[in-house]
Every structure is written in C-alpha cells, then in structure tokens.
Specification:
Elements lengths: L11 E2 L46 E6 L19 H12 L4 E6 L2 H5 L17 H4 L2 E17 L14 E4 L3 H10 L6 E3 L2 H10 L4 E5 H10 L4 E18 L5 H13 L2 H14 L12
Parallel strand pairs: 2-3, 5-6, 5-7
Antiparallel strand pairs: 1-3, 4-7, 4-8
Length: 292
C-alpha cells in the first residue's frame, strides 16, 4: 500500500563513513567489509559491483520516496536517515550495483505509483505490487509480504464488526484506500489524507475512528506515538512489496538477481530482524486477524 507527501528534494545521502553495522556484529549482524563503503549505519553484504546498475547519475542511485517511515527509513528528516529496512536494502542494492551513494529525495506516494514523479532509478517505499501500478511502472519480485493494519486511538474499543459503521481514514493512492472502498465498504465515506502523518494525527485526535494502512506502517507509527496509538487488527491482503522502477527499466532483471541472492544469503531476514521487530515493539503475529 502506501504513501503521500509534497515533493522536497534532499541532498545526496552519502557513505564512506567507515561505519559497520546496525549495532556491532554478533553472529546475526556481520560487520561490513572494510572495502565495502558502508552506507549510513547499514550492514553491507555481497560483492561490490557484482550486478551493475544503469543509473541516471554516475555512481549514485537516485531514489524518490515518501519519507521518513519508522522501521523502514529511520530519522526525523530526509537528511538524517541512515538506517531502516528499506534504506539498508537500498544501500545493499546500490553496493552490489556498483554505486557509491544514494540521492534520497522526498516525493508524494500517489505521484510515484502513477509515474508522475519525474526521473529516478528505483524506489523502495513499502509499495504493494498491483495490476494498476504495473501498467505504468515496473516492479521487481516481491521482497516483503504485507497485510493491512487497523490503527486506533489508544483505549478505543474496536472490533471487526465495528468497521462498517465507523468513520475510517485512508491515505490517498494506497491499497488501504482500495481495501476500504471495495472490501470494508463503510456506511460513511472515509476521510482521505495526503500522507501518513496526517492520517495518524487524525486518529490520535479522535477526528476519525480508525486508520487503515499497511500493518508495517501503522505498527511503526504506534511504537513511535508514546502510547497515543495502537493497532487492534490486521486484514490479510495476499499482497507483497516490490522494488519499483520506471517503465522499461533495464534494471529489473538485475535487481531481481540481487534479491534472489539476498534471500539466499540471509540479508533480507537480517534486515527484518534488525529493524522491524525493534521498530514495532510487538510480534505482528499476536495481532488479531480480521477476515472479510
């Protein structure tokens, strides 16, 4: 599913900082090699330049995304992002692709998935692969399975049966918006927000009864809310996140090869363990599943 915010370009997120891991390397957090040019606080794996990418700027992967996002792009500003599942997966893709940096730029989510955000190489932004999106953009193989989450103000009594009669909030251009319209079908039209912060603020203030968005996103928001928000249910969607690229990109097969390697060598599992479990503060499997 995912996102939206007005475009504001940030500078190049640079590397060569001589840092190793997201923590010091235990057996589950191997230290980056000294010559691997680690990005931010990420653990870098694989061989540098083993899968060359075609880039619009030499040596730099240009990325547009709706930023930041707890657990995925950690930081309070675009410039401060140095870790997170998507950020560090990007770093590993850039490293294996022969790049020396990431040019991380803020962009609206609905513009991204509609192919209206201008030039970029690729993006990871918790973007669900859908037929509508693949008609205008290219996607890699899935790298993460997703469900939808139901976020409420802390202490709100909300059950699956309450959703149809509740005032819900969705984010513009997301699969959450489609899920509400086509599956939940509430009696009252949902409020539509341009971005995650606006939706989350409306839930916390009681202006809407619940927000529907990717489970990963609402869990991150709840963990960061200092007790203002909680997630009370999850709705299966049988959907997955993919790396999104401009239509006709020469990098699709290259990125797929990298993802295959990172599944086999454990990089993807280690990113999930390092960033998502800590960011959520809860085991997602304990959240009730609401089937429609």
């Amino acid at each position: 599913m995912r996102h939206t915010r007005f475009v504001a370009t940030a500078g190049v997120i640079a590397l060569a900082m001589g840092l190793t891991a997201c923590g010091s390397g235990g057996k589950d957090s191997p230290a980056a090699k000294a010559d691997s040019a680690p990005f931010g606080d990420c653990v870098i794996t694989g061989e540098a330049g083993s899968h060359p990418l075609e880039l619009i700027k030499d040596g730099v992967v240009t990325v547009k995304a709706d930023l930041p996002s707890p657990g995925w792009y950690n930081g309070d500003t675009v410039e401060s992002i140095k870790s997170g599942f998507d950020y560090c997966l990007l770093a590993n893709i850039a490293h294996r692709g022969g790049a020396k940096g990431l040019d991380l730029q803020n962009s609206s989510f609905d513009g991204l998935v509609a192919g209206k955000s201008g030039s970029f190489d690729l993006t990871l932004n918790q973007i669900t692969i859908t037929p509508e999106r693949t008609s205008v953009m290219d996607f890699s193989k899935p790298y993460y399975e997703s469900t939808a989450g139901v976020m409420v103000k802390k202490g709100t009594a909300m059950t699956q049966g309450d959703l149809a009669n509740s005032h819900l909030g969705v984010k513009q251009g997301t699969v959450g918006q489609m899920l509400v319209a086509k599956t939940i079908k509430p009696a009252k039209d949902p409020s539509v927000f341009p971005g995650d912060p606006e939706q989350q603020a409306a839930v916390a203030a009681g202006r809407i009864d619940a927000g529907i968005q990717d489970l990963s996103i609402v869990l991150g928001a709840a963990a960061k809310s200092k007790g203002a928000l909680e997630v009370v249910g999850q709705i299966p969607t049988n959907e997955s996140y993919g790396v999104m690229m401009p239509k006709g990109s020469a990098n699709v097969k290259v990125v797929n090869a990298m993802l295959d390697e990172m599944k086999k060598d454990g990089t993807l599992d280690k990113l999930s363990s390092a960033y998502l479990t800590d960011a959520y503060g809860i085991d997602p499997t304990t959240i009730p599943v609401w089937n429609f």
